[in-house]
Amino acid sequence: MRNSGGKKYVTSLLPLQLGKKIQEEISDFELSRALPGKVWFPDDAEYRAQQAEYWLRQEAKDLHPNCRVTPASAEDVANTIKVVVSTNSAFAVKAGGHSSVSGASKIDEGVTIDMSSMSRVEVAHDQQSVLIGTRARWLDVYTALEQYGLSVSGSRASHVGVGGYVLGGGFSWFSNQNGWTCDMVSECGVVLANGTVVLASYAHHSDLFWALRGGGSSFGIVTSFKLPALKHPQVYGGPIAFDDNELNSVFASFEKLNREAHLDVHSSGYLSFAYDQRHKEVYNTFYLINSRGEASSPAFAGFLRTPSRFSHLRKMNMSTSAMETNHSNDPGYRESKLTLTFRNDAALMCDIHSIFTYFAGTVDYEPEGRLAMTFQPLTASHIAHSDNALGLSAKDAPLILLSVELRWSSKSTTEYFEDVVRRFYETMRTLLEENEALHPFVYLNYAARWQDPFAGYGVESVQRMKRVRKMYGPDSVFDILQPGAFKF
Ligand SMILES: Cc1cc2nc3c(=O)[nH]c(=O)nc-3n(C[C@H](O)[C@H](O)[C@H](O)COP(=O)(O)OP(=O)(O)OC[C@H]3O[C@@H](n4cnc5c(N)ncnc54)[C@H](O)[C@@H]3O)c2cc1C
Question: Does the keyword field hold rRNA processing (predicted)?
């Protein structure tokens, strides 16, 4: 009898005809042997602490892996994947745990590979690049770099993890200048399906490197990303709130900012709308950032001329902005999130806002419930950098990336709220189709479980991703054994 992480095994009694339960026991046993002290079972306090570390309450509360593994090096990840494959065990990989799809980074009954021990942030001696562990949170990255007067392209919100964010694309305050964060990555450390550890870059395994940039988690487990360090002073920006009667002017300014984004690549912003159920009104906010810390960007002129209800613009560190943005996105709720992409058009924004206001007023919220929507500019200068799997073409730009989030608390009302969100989606989609304004792009990092991001990548991109997955296969490992990820 052996004791591993609080779990006991009678190895000599394992029958040849393996039932599911016994197969799981072998997997747990082999993992405990391969990674002593790094495999955690439901009775362990460490397991319970890790179980709670998810943005979505659905993931935190409803899914219970047989064990959680916390590799601390690429070699540990390789050993984990070898055991998982040899025992045919279903698994999920978790970096920051901020996916909005329940089951993406935690699995029920299988093995959850939790990358929480891989979060180093190392600035190169010449301060030209940064090596970032896949489970670092963006706040850790910004804080570590600010002491050098540096930053990187990363999430606008502090608590998001590096791994999932970059593999899905990564929309940052530097995107108008440099494209998606994945476009800026110069090297990824990857553990392949057969346990081989490789460095993927433009020079080595360039096909794999291409697929990892936007293709999600179908090609390997990424242990680290190298990004260029950006010399930057503080950023300038913050939120400005507007009343409904100013929205025509706000939407016109947003359309212009998106259309003329190339004139000031350092400036960007997004519009967000949140329904306050107590006061029965929508809060309309524009959050703007100039990544050079300049207050006088012409991109913001239209917004600054429009009378505002409240504004809090100032110079600040990237980390301060990221914490401010995170503040309105607390973890711990049940959520349903979805996305659509449409033509840059002020009149359409106005129509969608009206639909939002109507729907928001009809929802039977729980006390902490909230419906929110965001418009983000997908500018031509952003998309122009794309040598990635996302399949976007700059000739389609400028576009608007729309996302919706509905929040509730109790499991029993899930069906109702998911139905609300689905009806809201169908209504917006119909409007956009009728106006020939719907673009097929579905941003993987904002997509609902029932959406198909890869359909929007285009046939050419998907065929190429399939070839890459086969080449670095076996195909089945990330496709079949990892059921929670989006499939193509
Ligand atoms: C509050 C909030 C703010 C956000 N802000 C932004 C933003 O500014 N810009 C933006 O583009 N997106 C943003 N997002 C979306 C975010 O990019 C996605 O939710 C992303 O998946 C989060 O990554 P993660 O590592 O935290 O998530 P996880 O849940 O850990 O992972 C997400 C997916 O990636 C896979 N994965 C993670 N790490 C690895 C790895 N190392 N190897 C292989 N597969 C891996 C997981 O298996 C899972 O399928 C935000 C989300 C939230 C909740």
Answer: no
Taking only the tens of pLDDT, the chain with its 488 residues reads 333 443 433 333 344 445 677 777 778 889 999 999 999 999 999 999 999 999 999 999 999 999 999 999 999 999 999 999 999 999 999 999 999 999 999 999 999 999 999 999 999 999 999 999 999 999 999 999 999 999 999 999 999 999 999 999 999 999 999 999 999 999 999 999 999 999 999 999 999 999 999 999 999 999 999 999 999 779 999 999 999 999 999 999 999 999 999 999 999 999 999 999 999 999 999 999 999 999 999 999 999 999 999 999 999 999 999 999 988 888 999 999 999 999 999 999 999 999 999 999 999 999 999 999 999 999 999 999 878 999 999 999 999 999 999 999 999 999 999 999 999 999 999 999 999 999 999 999 999 999 999 999 999 999 999 999 999 988 789 989 999 889 89
CB 159 within 8 A of CB 175: no
Q: Which of 50, 82, 116 is the last residue of a domain?
A: 116
Q: 100 C-alpha to center of ligand 1: Å?
A: 8
Identify whether 239 is part of a domain: yes
Q: Which residue has the tokens 């006061």?
A: 279
* 333 contacts 261 by C-beta, under 8 angstroms: no
Angle at 478 between CA 29 and CA 23, to 5 degrees: 25
Could you identify the residue written with the tokens 């899930």?
Answer: 414
ipTM for the predicted complex: 0.99
Question: The domain spanning residue 9 has which CATH number?
Answer: 3.30.43.10
